[in-house]
Design goal:
Blueprint lengths: L19 E4 L4 E4 H10 L15 E3 L1 H40 L3 H9 L5
Antiparallel strand pairs: 1-2, 1-3
Length: 117
């Protein structure tokens, strides 16, 4: 699995954004639930610690799309890893069968010659 780039992490939750919003006054993005919780208790921006005059939040569509693309890439990589594991198990099984059948040395020699075993 890939580590998400810091730009895709909410500075409050440290998790990949699911519902990112921009705090208009400061321009910083936060996970909606986290910033709403913060703003219900404090009148500051958690990123800058500046006192806010305006608590307006706007959906960050670009950041949401980037996070969704990252998560889709993660799912795709998991599927690839699974397929590679399956292929490796099959290859090991085949190698063991060649060895048991006494064909191991012949198969290795053919591979070294650039031929298919």
């Amino acid at each position: 699995m890939l580590e998400p780039p810091p730009s895709l992490l909410c500075p409050v939750t440290l998790a990949v954004f699911a519902d990112p919003v921009v705090l208009v006054e400061t321009g910083h993005s936060f996970e909606r639930a986290a910033i709403e919780r913060h703003l219900s208790r404090f009148n500051t921006c958690p990123a800058t610690l500046l006192t806010l005059q305006d608590k307006t939040l706007v959906v960050n569509h670009q950041l949401r799309k980037a996070c969704q693309e990252f998560q889709e890439t993660q799912k795709h990589l998991v599927r690839i890893q699974s397929a590679l594991r399956t292929a490796l198990v099959a290859l090991l099984h085949c190698s063991l069968r060649h060895r048991e059948m006494g064909l191991w040395d012949e198969a290795i020699a053919r591979c070294n010659e650039g031929k298919s075993p």
